[in-house]
Amino acid sequence: MRFVIVTGMSGAGKTQAIRSLEDLGYFCVDNLPPTLISKFAEACFQTEGKIDKIAIVVDIRGRRFFDDLFDSLSHLDAEGYLYEVLFLEATDEVLVKRYKESRRKHPLAPDGRVINGISIERKKLRAIRDKANKIINTTKLSNKELNEEIINYFGEQGQIETQLLINVVSFGFKYGIPLDSDLVFDVRFLPNPFYIPELKPFSGLDKPVKDYVLAKNETKEFVDKLIDMLLFLIPSYKNEGKRQLIISIGCTGGRHRSVAISNKIYELLCHNGYNATIDHRDVNEDVNRGAGKL
Q1: Residue 35's closest CA among 83, 78, 67, 60?
Q2: Is 102 annotated as a binding-site member?
Q3: Residue 21 burial by CB count (10 A; 0-12/13-18/19+): exposed, middle or buried?
Q4: What is the pLDDT of residues 256-282, one digit of tens each?
Q5: Is 12 labeled as ligand-binding?
Q6: CB-based contacts of 264: which residues, under 8 Å, 6+ apart?
Q7: How far is the first Cα of the chain from the last one, in angstroms, to the nearest whole number?
Q8: Which residue ranges does the record assign to the RapZ C-terminal domain (predicted)?
Q9: By C-alpha distance, which of 77, 74, 51, 72 is closest to 62?
Q10: Residue 12: φ, ψ to 5°
Q11: Torsion angle, CA of 133/58/3/43, rounded to 10 degrees?
């Protein structure tokens, strides 16, 4: 089990760090009172491996409870629980700037100057900083760069390469474009199987419709151009730290053309080594509603 205690200066990036750990599959708890650490650790270690990655944020938001941190860590040491401490920090100038941009008050100076709260906090955190296994100074780091630091230190081998999940979604325009789409492609320019009596009852999941749609020269050209563009775009999305890419492909009713082409794009993405899923949102909508063009 990997048990990580995330702490550090307010405004240094603990929220981003815990989000990155959560994306790596860690069970995360924010602002856990230090007095509860030992009981929480005991419960986690008793899961017999069912929960094997845990991260908790402990900081001065706990006010006077924060003073119990070292007693809790001593208890973990005495019980033989292995843990790591991640400490995040930044320069006073950058922390003050971040507080001014967010317009938030410092927890240790709610009615006073931020710089005074920062000074008090540094003194209170000095001992836990000395105990840290990993210290990250976020003064010059973007969120993307901090995420990469977290992945490099706490992720498993190969996790960076698989962190982007691609969702291919077929849909019908008459039921609306999926709200969470990143890329939307319209295939209503292709011949519609709806108007062929022997194909109308089927969907793009069935071989007759699939063969009809994919055999068209314009379909072949469209799929070739689309996959070329996606293979160009996806590495750039990954480099920018994007975790999920939703590619929506639509026809009129979301039953014939969009389904067949979405399946083909999904197959090609998987063939190229990408972590992809497929979802046919509206494939049965017109059947259920009993009307409309497909």
Answers
A1: 67
A2: no
A3: buried
A4: 999 999 999 999 999 999 989 999 999
A5: yes
A6: 214, 223
A7: 52
A8: 165-283
A9: 72
A10: -90, -5
A11: 150
DSSP string across 177-220 = --TT-SEEEE-TTSPPGGGSTTTTTS-TTSHHHHHHHHHSHHHH
Name the strand (E) or helix (H) holding 127: helix 114-130
Selection from 83, 29, 26 nearest residue 59 by Cα = 29
106 backbone dihedrals φ, ψ, rounded to 5°: -75, 135
Is 14 labelled a binding residue?
Answer: yes
Q: Would the annotation count 60 as a binding residue?
A: yes
Longest Cα separation, the chain: 78
Q: Could you state, in order of their start, the residue ranges of all structural domains in the chain? A: 2-159, 164-289
8 among annotated binding-site residues: yes
Q: Read off the pLDDT of residues 165-219 as tens digits, 9 standing for 90 and up.
A: 899 999 999 999 998 899 999 999 999 999 999 999 999 999 999 999 999 999 9
Phi-psi region of 25 (alpha: psi -120 to 50; beta: other; left: phi over 0): left
Q: Is 62 annotated as a binding residue?
A: yes
Read off the amino acid at residue 16.
Q
The whole-angstrom separation of Cα 54 and Cα 61 is 20
Residue with tokens 């109308």: 200
DSSP state, 3? E
User: Is 139 annotated as ligand-binding?
Assistant: no
Is 181 annotated for ligand binding? no
Residue 109 DSSP one-character state = B
The answer as to CATH 3.40.50.300 being correct for domain 2-159 is yes
CB-CB contact of 283 with 205 (8 Å): yes
Whether the full predicted model's pTM is greater than 0.90, yes or no, is no
